[in-house]
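Q: Could you write out the predicted structure for this multi-component system? I'm mainly interested in how the pieces pack against one another.
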Amino acid sequence: MGRMADTGYVYPSVRSAPERVAAPAEHVPKRVLSQNLLALGFTSFFTDISSEMVLAVVPLFLTASLGFSIVGFGLFEAAYQGTNAVFRIWGGAIADHRQNHKRTAATGYAISTATRVGLVISTFVAAIPAVPFLLADRIGKGMRTAPRDALISLSTHPARLGTAFGIHRSLDTAGAVLGPLLAFVILDQAPGQFDAVFVMSAIAGVIGVAIIVTFAQEKPQTVPKPTNRPAILAQWREVLSVPGMKGLALGAAALSAFTVSDAFVYLIIQRTTDMSARYFPLLFVGTALVYLTTAVPVGRLADRVGARPVFLAGHICLVVLYLLLGFGELGLVVSLLALGLLGGYYAATDGVVAALASRLVHAPVRATGIALITVVIALARMVSAGMFGLLWQTQGRAEALTVYVIAMVAAIAVGYRCIPSDLSARAET
Amino acid sequence: MTATTPGGVSLPDATGPSDRDALRNKLLLLGVAVVALLIAGVGYLFWASGRAEEDLATREARAQEAIEAFETEPDLGAAVVDESDEVEPSPEDSTTDPETATEPLLGDGEVLVVNRVPGDDYGRLAVRHVDGTRTLLERRCLRVHIAADRGVCLARDEAVLVPAFRTEFFDLSNPDLPALRSYSSPLPSRARMSPDGVLATATSFVSGSSYADIGGEAETIVTIDEVDNRRALVGLLQFEVLADDPRYNAADRQFWGLSFEDNDRFWVTGFFGAEPELLRGSVSRRTLELVEQPGSCPSVSPDGKHVVFKETLPGLEEYALVLIDTETGAQRRLGESRSVDDQVEWLDDDTILYALHPEGTEDAEAGTVQPQFDIWMLDIASGAEPELFLPAADSPAVLQP
């Protein structure tokens, strides 16, 4: 018996069709919480407190939270997502290649935490600018994401992946809500003393890193490592040849290419209502609260009915959201409804697509596969942000949203055809 | 797995007794570390909070010193009385409670300002009496302007913890300055009323916070309101610039710093990719005309004969004040050598008011929580020198007769 979790769940070794996953699962554990899930969840919780605290007070973000310029926002988003994407792919590939998901993820968390210390120093030493540290934080964030998700999936029974990712995303989002709140409480106590925010941020970051280093465990694969580990390019070929992978990538890309980023949603609500700008910072909090409370039940649903229908339903939320934003009378009630739909969209997509990818991709290249899908989504969203900004500016809000409604309906049809069903991949409950 | 650890209450992966002990030790260690870190963090916060208070106290003392020095200056009263012919010496001193006042809030020669003494009263409106003393009011504004019996106040929204702002219209005929209506707005920058008090305009930054960043990160919006109507009347981006070159009506054009001539005509700054330039517009026709004059933040004199604007000095983020004669188009720089980043206010047809950071603290003040400003006064006659009008104050608003 001993360390059951280390031997883990039996994953088909190579090139398995999803159906084969179901075979060995005679019993599905009721319990989803594993030491790794808890460790990674709380690491994300503290790290999100840490990073959102900083983002909330950095002037760039401060002005941004008051509203981006339409095209300017698209550009910022592009640069931000670009850095993130490059390091996400790299982190996933390295983690699979070396089979050290924990170490790669922990390194990413440590890099981000180290940047907080840099920020503290930069507030005291005028010669040291803050911007490189803010960029380095994006590097750490990109690097850790895929290995962390892979580690969660490797520590969880395939039939409970939706729930597990739901739990992780809940903790993660709770940190993202608490961070800005803490930052503003600190600045209320010590007006203008930004170093106090950075010190507290560093402390939260150190706690996060301490948790992952102390409590998370590497999950060696059950099958012996091939003596000559595949080169990174070979890993990529392997991931792309996984049955259903291209379909998932294509479907996710089509859906994400018409996903309006949340900042645009907030901007539309702000600009079309008289009252809402006052609540502008609360728009984010509202969305996050919906997300963090629904992530677990929606994840369970994905475990029961399959991740594909839930993922598609998340995008149907967006269609309704677009219709509300484009043609609804945006009062308080409709604005709240819009936030609910946006939060629901996140709950039904972010963790769910990670679960879907995890069920598809076999363990040795799991991080690479997760990185691929999440990067495809990020890039498609980047294109979407640029397109939407341009459409909004040249054609108007209702026209832009009309285009996006039609395109999203088409994309949902594409997604339905392309994205493989994972129903057979999860075990019967 | 569940079968092997029935009813296990410890963390799922720790199944053996030694594993459990190890886990307990690790958790204990983590707990101790977290407590120690939090104590350190709270300690740091106290230290930072003390620093913030100390800093504020120092700056408040400095501002009070400047005010005392100013109020005891002998020729001050004369300098102001000059501008408003027959001012009776005000019987009220600076402790007068505005609520008991039965006469209008602003007597002859009195100017509404925003108090900039660091501390709790920072941001409160104040009446600047002719003798240079001030009476603080309850209303708080970042920027204020008044005309007839109305005022526009761009204020911090105190209802939310994070930075948020409101545009408020208030009744100037009531000494309590009650709000007529208000709505949320982005980061406020400039505010103006039309001379008859019917229209109000506000410039806000929807992104960025500095005019130096226009064309880059910063983006501004200008709104024009009919004070008595329920909704914001119009944004300047909906106006058409009467020019052949399509760049003047491109989507990324920007406007800021509007100043009314009357109930319809106004001057404003436009940016179309190169450098800020002045335009004249009509509210009723929703059009703008080019003035063919680079510059920003115009301010029309009460008699409509002059406009003072900011000229951007080449290669610097600095501005010179330039006077333009609206009939002849003749222009010349005014006698202010310091960089003025403000939309000036007219004390009368020949005198302007504007705010500057206290001398020698320009850079330091820009980054502080409660930046300090002094209001300066300058005659538009050539050769005139600026005079201090009121220390530790900002956003002068004059009720024109």
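A: Regarding packing and overall arrangement: The radius of gyration of chain B is 27 Å.
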